[in-house]
Design a protein that fits this description.
mainly alpha; Rossmann fold; two-stranded parallel sheet; 5 helices
């Protein structure tokens, strides 16, 4: 991450928050609905998952030694994520922070938000471009 590794000065990456918000507002103004999910796990769960990836030969392809170094920066990443969530969660495009240590709960929470959103949207089939008779037999 740019911020955690100091790849850009704070003045530069700090401007990105406003740019993101402006872009998302543009999308919303044009009729796009935005759902943003932040899937949050605890450091203990991350440790367990990394260990599982290493221990299971069928999951080892997911494991990178660099993940162990990045894990040491947990607090820096959490500070960056917290700032991003606070600055980029808007009325037009809010963030949903989903506790994700348990996949079943993560899946349920996301599915409920998506289902509730679809219900509120009340999507409908478009009308036929033709005036149709009450009955029709296609031969």
């Amino acid at each position: 991450m740019v911020r955690v590794h100091g790849l850009e000065p704070a003045e530069r990456w700090g401007r990105h928050y406003d740019q993101i918000n402006a872009f998302e507002q543009l999308l919303v103004d044009e009729g796009t609905l935005i759902l943003k999910f932040f899937l949050l796990i605890t450091p203990e769960e991350q440790r367990r998952r990394l260990q599982d990836r290493f221990d299971d030969p069928t999951k080892r392809w997911k494991f990178k030694l660099g993940d162990l170094e990045e894990r040491k920066r947990w607090d820096d990443y959490m500070a960056a994520y917290t700032d991003m969530l606070e600055r980029c969660s808007t009325t037009a495009a809010p963030w949903y922070v989903i506790p994700s240590d348990h996949n079943w709960f993560r899946n349920l929470a996301v599915a409920e938000i998506v289902a509730d959103t679809l219900e509120e949207m009340d999507p409908q089939y478009p009308p036929s471009p033709d005036v149709l008779p009450d009955t029709l037999v296609v031969e």
